Amino acid sequence: MSKATEQLAFKYIAGETIAQVIKTVERLRKEKMGFTIDLLGEAVITESEAAEYWQNYLDLMAQLSQQAKSWSKVPQIDQADGEILPQVQVSVKLTAFYSQFDPWTPQVVKPRFVSGFGHCCGEPKN
Question: 59: part of which helix (H) or strand (E)?
């Protein structure tokens, strides 16, 4: 990978480990910049691969949420229109959670998603 490509990648990749991600997020917050995090990768081929993604997302959300408890409020990024915004925002890719994902059958995917994340995150937003 060229140095320029590597520098560009690290502008958009928060880290290779959750500890690195937390460090990057805390730097962004000090600069009054919000964030949304997701895991690299997309579609999975096997259910064991999907299970690994589930666990990685759960670990990421748990550790980020725990760390967020110690963050100072930054009004510029923690509220909008008088409402409090979530300090931790994680984007998920449904294709990473089910090897048989089909966008034309959301009724199959949604129950799997809610059963996996619902207990920690509530109902997913549309």
Answer: helix 47-68
In this structure, what token pair is assigned to residue 9?
């990648």
Measured between alpha carbons, how far is 3 from 85 in angstroms, rounded to an integer? 36
The whole-angstrom separation of Cα 84 and Cα 12 is 26
Look at residue 32 and give its three-state secondary structure.
coil
Coil, strand or helix: which one is 77?
Answer: helix
Write out the H or E segment, with its range, that includes residue 83: strand 83-84
Q: How far apart are the C-alpha atoms of 24 and 30, rounded to whole Å?
A: 10
Question: Rounded distance, CA 96 to CA 53, Å?
Answer: 6
Sequence-distant (≥ 6) Cβ neighbours of residue 76 within 8 angstroms: 32
Instruction: Report pLDDT digits (tens) over 49-72.
Output: 988 988 999 999 999 999 999 999
Question: pTM of the predicted model, to two decimals?
Answer: 0.78
